[in-house]
Amino acid sequence: MIFVSDIAIFVLKRDVKLQLTNLGDTLSVDGDADAVVEARIRIGWNKFRQLLQLLTNRDISLIRRGRLYSSCVRSSMLHRSETWPVRKENEVALQRAEMRMVRWMCNVKVNDRVPSKELRERLGIDYIILILQYNRLRWYGHVLRKEDTDWVKKCMEYEVVGFRPRG
Known about the structure:
Layout: H1 4-14, E1 19-22, E2 25-28, H2 34-50, H3 52-55, H4 62-77, H5 88-106, H6 116-123, H7 128-145, H8 151-157
Antiparallel strand pairs: 1-2
Helix pairs in contact: 2-4, 2-5, 4-5, 5-6
């Protein structure tokens, strides 16, 4: 017979990082979304490479390239991001990946010292973090409009009994 405490001790001794998989998204037991963000960035790069000839074509205006990027690459990077427990490191990783793609589309090197804001204006796109926040707020609105008997809304309104230790 195995007890839960035995499993926890085994995990601590082996330094195994447990992960939960929900519909393709992998969240760690620690509550972070590092694996999901890395996977989504990888998917975004794959989409970018598939569309590379269009995204770097100088015959296509920068605004159209920006729209193509937003609808295909960025949407695949932020797919199901509404429920990610995003930390600052995840935001930085998403911003870094996006800016590398933006600079590639605009044919601008880092040494050219062109501000990121200017490149975004050329392409007509917003910051990826703003889009992430927008998606989360839109999902939150959906949850608020759900019936009171829905399990998602019940989870939001759930109050844990007891005290939380300091720290």
